[in-house]
Amino acid sequence: MSDLFEITYINPGVTSFTRSAGGMLQMKTARELFAEITVRRTYPMSRPYEYLSVWTKDDKEIGIIRDIEELDDKSREELVAELKLRYVIPAVTQIISIKEEPGLWSFQVKTDRGDLKLLMRNIHEHIQMIGVNRLIITDMEGKRCEIEDIESLDAASRKQLNKVI
To answer: Which pLDDT does position 6 carry in this prediction?
Structure first.
């Protein structure tokens, strides 16, 4: 019996990632140039730079990069830049307030992309712990932000957060 899915791993020794003159990400292997590609995370939270899936502009998977660290420096830089564009999640720099209102929780935060207000009915359904000190917060409308390291927040922000986690 054959497998339903066959995984093709991309050989980092013969593969490079660059930008075209028009700024599109492209991949060159020993045999072929893929002029316009996209990169998708298969494990976006737990392994953001491992097992990256590379796709053609026609939405066909080329293969999987096991670990971005196996690539040359320039290729790694291009992939990190592309992933930052594709997966934009504002990073919380300060928590202004966390308030419980009738039937709603309101988070007012400052992020690296500006101020953000998040509304949630049940905060425990909207806060996802990733590891020990990392949180992803998603509100009822799907707005999302990340606290990369709780310990890096100022004392007042940590005090606000400790009330609810």
So the answer is: 84
